[in-house]
Amino acid sequence: MNKDSDARIKLDRLSEALAKDLDALSDGELMEEIAATDEGRQKTVSHMRSLIEEAIATSGRRRLAKARQAYDAIKGKARAKVTDLPLDQKKALVAHFAKDPQALPEKLTMAARNEANSEADLDSLLQDLLELGVIDDEGNPR
Amino acid sequence: MKLRPAELLLKDLGITDPREIGLEAIALDQRAIVKHGTLDGCEARIVGYGSRAIITVDDRKPWTRQRFSTAHELGHWKHHRGRYLVCRPDELSDLRSNSLDPEQIADFYAADLLLPRYLFVPRAVALRLSTFEAVEILSREYSTSISATAIRLAQYGPEPAMLVCHGPEGRKWFNRPQQIPERWFPRDDLSADSSAMNVLYGMNRFGRRSTVGAEAWFDRWDASRYELYEQSFKISDQEVLTFLVFTNAEMLEDIA
Question: What ipTM does this complex have?
Fold first, then answer.
């Protein structure tokens, strides 16, 4: 990491910490603080606040741009072998994880407004389980 | 205004304009990949393992519906990590009445993510009226459906308004913001005096906002004393949405 990016990260962290402090104040507390000072100070506070908010927004936008690049890089991956298994085996595999998700080393999350009934839905579900590292390419639990 | 989780996330990401609400990138920031493909059994699904997840959305649905489904699954990812929430459609109606229903929690998260109040409220107030003309403008700006946008406008719009959805068989659902007292409970059937009937069975997609006696919408002894604005919008051949705007302050008073 070079000096410039290190300094930028530190500045981002400082900006976020300052903004969080300001955000923690209620509107009333903020107005009280501002009312106790003169007009020049009020302008400074408002200027500082907008600088900090802009710094947070800039840092957030960088985070979002990085995520967009990562998404473009992973689009369109190849189809897994597990989808070539007989339908009954595929159903049994999915049922196994649905029945006992606690047996896995990490927490499994699943939400859908219906069970996967069609073979195409099962295939895409198995593909997801493979990509997440729950099963290997042949459908064996990892 | 205390920001809710989805709004805090958008703020953290520096989002200051609705066009910046790119769900695929936001999801990736949360370590979830969004895939658009074919799903036969449901509109969308999330599978997560540890801290990573894959969201699949049926790409045959309208784009605004896909966006809502994606945001809904992100709601599950935020609130229901490590849980198995696969249910049949007949189980859903039982859960819907429960405020702890995970589907409802995910719906609220989706609404906050797609139509965050810190951006939506100032814009909606600037449009001055709770009408379907305003809904169309906002739904274009936020890439959201007419229904989702209209619900948001009823809740946080410039006027006290209730949103009611009817089909040929009667009332399907309604959304009443907190400022409207509970005694105003919309009728099941559509009154012949209401312009909603013409919109549901007519050729026009939506009617003009007009004044109507409150008794056309509410089966209460005192309803005939009041008038309100109504405006209807046909969202499909089988469904019409109506904004009921409460123009009389007495109607908004709480009566012990």
Answer: 0.80
